[in-house]
Write a structure and sequence with these properties.
alpha/beta; globular; about 15% strand; binds thymidine-5'-diphosphate; binds nicotinamide-adenine-dinucleotide
Length: about 325
């Protein structure tokens, strides 16, 4: 089978390609990625050394390039990871999210409709459902929860999902969508909470915690997520949405303390800062539907976060390569000196 993996040089996409190209030597993987600030080829060095992986630099919203690619390659599966993904950046520059996340997805869908394929899989997020209250711990998002996105990021992901479902209904395109909770693990760009805390703590820099630190996220180890996607792509039902979660709910402040304690750093590094506008209180996933395909997360956050810390400690050269000038400028603008 021939896979197109868009955004395969980013965090989750690189883990997917590294893992699946090793476990499925019989399949071919073409990574198509614009290599924006958070995508880089160092993350897929291992995969690119294999015969069944190739790379092409390009933008998913470039109609001519995408059409030519689909005409040339005849893909069986498309797994679309490519997106602008950081909520804080979407608050500063919402338009970039419309282009990559909505126009980009639509461009891929058009090419898929024109050239045909077995399945188009859209990697989406639980953030399309908005937020849950903190008080009722039994509430969790199901696939039937209404769409109620809070940020320009989640609004763009919800819009893309609706286009995917419309292409299924109107043109009969074979599609699946996965909506997962917060991922963590190797190769995550250090603007997101876990690698941000880790890398700042290593440099004894203050750790910015938004609001009171009581917001809850459902943490999912990235390889677990990749295995869920592979299952959905191969075994999921046409036109269906699958929520993917890790049963790993934790308050942000618990995550921050766990990282500092593991690194042997003082809790006095924590600085409570101004809250994010529209900050969702809680996300939690009901994974019953994806479990019926045979999926079960294999990492608890306590153990997965420690494994992630070990990975970053033994891959400092990767970190040095991604923390370039534009990243440092962003950190300065977002958090001050
Ligand atoms: P990431 O920001 O690490 O990587 C995104 C990748 O997409 C990068 O390699 C980037 O270069 C590429 N890209 C961006 N715009 C592009 C464009 N126009 N054309 C081609 N390539 C482009 O993101 P991630 O965390 O790996 O997320 C991957 C997908 O998973 C996204 O669709 C995101 O919405 C979804 N998701 C992520 C999480 C999470 O916790 N990280 C949770 C739920 C859903
Ligand atoms: P993030 O990793 O940006 O993921 P998302 O917003 O998609 O859930 O943030 C995870 C949580 O951590 C979220 O509640 C916001 C919070 N957060 C901080 O408290 N400080 C920070 O510097 C960042 C980046 C996030």
């Amino acid at each position: 089978m021939k896979f197109l993996v868009t955004g395969g040089a980013g965090f989750i996409g690189s883990n997917f390609v590294n893992l699946m190209s090793r476990e499925h030597p019989e399949d071919d993987y073409l990574v198509y990625d614009a290599l924006t600030y958070c995508g880089n080829l160092f993350s897929i060095e291992a995969a690119l050394g294999r015969k069944n992986v190739s790379f092409l630099r390009g933008d998913i919203s470039d109609e001519a390039a995408v059409d030519a690619l689909f005409g040339r390659e005849r893909f069986d599966y498309v797994v679309n990871f490519a997106a602008e993904t950081h909520v804080d950046r979407s608050i500063k520059d919402p338009k970039a999210f419309l282009r990559s996340n909505v126009e980009g997805t639509l461009t891929l869908l058009e090419a898929a409709r024109k050239h045909g394929l077995k399945r188009f899989h859209q990697v989406s997020t639980d953030e399309v459902y908005g937020m849950l209250p903190l008080e009722d711990k039994d509430l969790a998002f199901t696939e039937e929860s209404p769409l109620a996105p809070s940020s320009p990021y989640s609004a763009s992901k919800a819009a893309a999902d609706l286009y995917v479902l419309a292409y299924h209904r109107t043109y009969g395109l074979n599609v699946t969508i996965s909506r997962c909770s917060n991922n963590y693990g190797p190769y995550q760009f250090p603007e997101k909470l876990i690698p941000l805390v880790l890398t700042r703590a290593l440099k004894d820099e203050r750790i910015p915690v938004y609001g009171n630190g009581k917001n809850v996220r459902d943490w999912l180890y990235v390889e677990d997520h990749c295995r869920a996607i592979d299952l959905i792509v191969r075994k999921g039902d046409d036109g269906e949405i699958y929520n993917v979660g890790g049963h790993g709910e934790k308050e942000n402040i618990e995550v921050v303390k766990l990282i500092l304690e593991t690194l042997g750093k003082p809790l006095s590094l924590i600085a409570y800062v101004k809250d994010r506008p529209g900050h969702d209180l809680r996300y939690a996933i009901n994974p019953t539907k994806v479990s019926s395909l045979g999926f079960a997360p294999t990492h608890r956050p306590e153990e997965g976060i420690k494994k992630t810390i070990e990975w970053y400690l033994s891959h400092r050269d990767w970190l040095r390569k991604v923390e370039d000038g534009s990243y440092l400028a962003y950190v300065k603008e977002q958090y001050g000196e």
